[in-house]
Amino acid sequence: MAMGSSQEAKLLEKEAEEEEKHEEEIERTEVKVLIALDESEGSLHALNWALDHLFGNAGSRDLRSLTILHIIQPFPQYFCPGGPGVYVTPMVVDSVIKSQEQHSAALLRRASTMCSEKHVRAETLKKEGEPKEAICQVVEQIHADLVVIGSRGLGTIKRAVLGSVSDYVAHHAKCPVLIVKPPK
Question: How far apart are alpha carbons 25 and 94 in whole angstroms?
């Protein structure tokens, strides 16, 4: 038995509405972007690049959330700079920690200002630890969908000797990683 044309039309209309709702849900899915910053110009260039290319138009701003992360490396109380070991007094450690906190706050303020100038809301976050490991931990904690990180532009030998935070994050983060090369 065939359906009447009005029933077919209603069925097609209902299917179209359901498909449209599904497409709207997909479009509204928020993408969480994490930008890891340090004090380098390459890092700030990466933030600027992300603001221009990922948050550049007003429509995309609503679909993306931005978290700016700065990692404060722990200051060792004992170290050996190529000679006999040196113990650092608690007063010196406190002074260095206070200075690190001030530098971190200034960097995050600068990043927030850059975001505000481009009309992008951003959450700032600071964490203590080894940068490459801490970035990967934060990725998992906030369920980031994308990490944007700057590259210092180290050559092959320096990267092998010093290690590369961006290289480590690219291989260990549980989401895609966008490495922004420094401007030439």
Answer: 50
**Nearest-angstrom CA–CA distance, 42 and 29:** 30
Can you spell out the DSSP letters for 54-86? TS-SHHHHTTEEEEEEEEEPPPPSEE-SSSS-E
Instruction: Please tell me the distance from the alpha carbon of residue 50 to that of residue 125, in angstroms, as a whole number.
Output: 17
What number of residues does the chain have?
Answer: 184
Q: Are 71 and 128 in contact (CB under 8 A)?
A: yes
CB 41 within 8 A of CB 114: no
Asked whether 15 and 123 are in contact (CB, 8 A), the reply is: no
Q: pLDDT digits over 27-86, tens only?
A: 547 889 999 999 888 899 999 999 999 987 765 556 688 999 999 988 776 665 666 666
Q: Which amino acid is at 137?
A: Q
Q: Is the pTM higher than 0.90?
A: no
Q: Which residues contact 121 (CB under 8 A, 6 or more apart)?
A: 61, 65, 66, 115
Other CB atoms within 10 A of residue 113 CB: 10
